[in-house]
Specification:
- The complex is a heterodimer of chains A (179) and B (157).
- Chain A is mainly alpha-helical.
- Chain A folds into two domains: 69 residues, Rna Polymerase Sigma Factor, Chain: A (Orthogonal Bundle); 69 residues, Winged helix-like DNA-binding domain superfamily/Winged helix DNA-binding domain (Arc Repressor Mutant, subunit A), CATH 1.10.10.10.
- Chain A is 69% helix and 0% strand.
- Chain A has eight helices and no strands.
- In chain A, helix 2 packs across helix 3.
- Chain A is globular and about 50 Å long.
- Chain A starts with 14 loop residues before the first helix and ends in a 6-residue tail after the last helix.
- Chain B is mainly alpha-helical and 157 residues long.
- Chain B is 52% helix and 0% strand.
- Chain B starts with 16 loop residues before the first helix and ends in an 8-residue tail after the last helix.
- In chain B, 9% of the residues are buried.
- The chains are: A mainly alpha (179), B mainly alpha (157).
- At the A-B interface, helix 1, helix 5, helix 6, helix 7 and helix 8 of A face helix 1, helix 2 and helix 3 of B.
């Protein structure tokens, strides 16, 4: 909380602008935060936190909203990691399965499976994880990812392939069963 | 390149590339908060998702991109609205002009009719008809119209 967000108050950012930006970019921000923290709920909180801070921000005009929000969310995640705050949060997929006739056992198995893959993703280096998140969470093409990662689409394809292979190796080592 | 064959993976892994592809898609589908879930990908539409536009603005200022496209569509909207307004106005003018003409002609006809009905019927003052001149005699005894005008008519008791 200490180093997140610009320090100066007084911002002209209007509500409708923020809302529009939220509609267009919140998911992308979530994916990027997810690639940083490997936790869907925490990434979601980071998005909310960044937008709340933007809403109340009264500093100098924000010229690049996306960069500003990324910085705020990233700092918030960093602060959280520093505090080692492991507050209780929903297991991934729980809200999705609620009320859909899924038994508690199946739900637990699903949560376990998700946790295993998440743990394996954690083992990857940052760039490999980021590439996988952009590819599978955002459904971006190699060319789109290449724009963000500042490299060629061919390099992204290679990195994607390598990241998948490395993830497969980790999952195999951990005895993950693909049903 | 993304969907490589099984042979690309070393034998130490229990998963093929396509299996990993499916596994990761499923994993991220469940990981993504419900409100942000993407529609199921269609065949051959990879990279053409709704977020394609969002990604295009990654390298430019998002607000500028949104602003310029909004102003372009706004300008187009203004031109369209203007054209439609002009067309509507001319239509109104034509229709009102036509109705005015028909109204005035109807009015004229009514006026003529009124004039015809309300005009006093002419009374001949001379057996020779309307002489058109005060100097012509209006009776057999040679009475002129000029003289007839000066006849004082008094009510009879």
């Amino acid at each position: 909380m200490t180093d997140s967000g610009p320090e100066q108050p007084g911002n002209p950012t209007q509500g409708p602008q923020v809302e529009q930006f939220y509609r267009e970019h919140s998911r992308e921000l979530w994916a990027l935060f997810y690639s940083m923290c490997n936790d869907p709920e925490r990434a979601y909180d980071a998005v909310q936190e960044a937008f709340v801070r933007l809403y109340v921000y009264r500093g100098e005009p924000v010229r690049d909203l996306r960069a500003w929000l990324l910085r705020v969310g990233q700092n918030w995640l960093r602060d959280l990691a520093r505090k080692k705050s492991n507050s209780c949060h929903l297991l991934p997929g729980m809200d999705d399965q609620t009320g859909q006739g899924v038994s508690p056992e199946e739900r637990m198995a699903l949560a376990e499976r998700q946790a295993q893959i998440r743990g394996a993703l954690q083992e990857l280096n940052d760039d490999d994880r980021k590439v996988l998140v952009m590819k599978y969470s955002m459904d971006w093409s190699a060319a789109q990812i290449a724009t963000v990662m500042d490299c060629s689409a061919a390099a992204i394809d290679m990195r994607l392939s390598r990241a998948r292979r490395r993830l497969a190796e980790i999952l195999t080592e951990r005895g993950f069963q693909n049903d | 390149m993304t969907n490589q064959s099984n042979s690309d993976f070393p034998e130490t892994t229990a998963f093929s590339d396509s299996q990993m592809d499916g596994l990761l898609r499923n994993f991220f589908r469940l990981e993504t908060p419900t409100s942000w879930k993407l529609p199921e990908p269609r065949q051959g539409s990879q990279g053409k998702s709704a977020l394609h536009a969002a990604s295009a603005s990654m390298t430019i200022l998002a607000s500028q991109g949104v602003g310029s496209s909004a102003s372009q569509s706004g300008r187009r909207g203004v031109v369209m609205t203007g054209t439609l307004t002009v067309l509507a106005l001319s239509l109104v003018l034509i229709v009102s002009g036509q109705s005015q003409n028909s109204a005035s002609s109807a009015l004229n006809a009514t006026h003529q009719q009124d004039k015809a009905t309300s005009a006093p019927s002419m009374m001949l003052v001379s057996p020779h008809g309307n002489s058109g001149s005060a100097e012509k005699p209006v009776s057999d005894d040679g009475l002129l119209l000029k003289e007839a005008d000066q006849i004082q008519l008094n009510p009879m008791n």
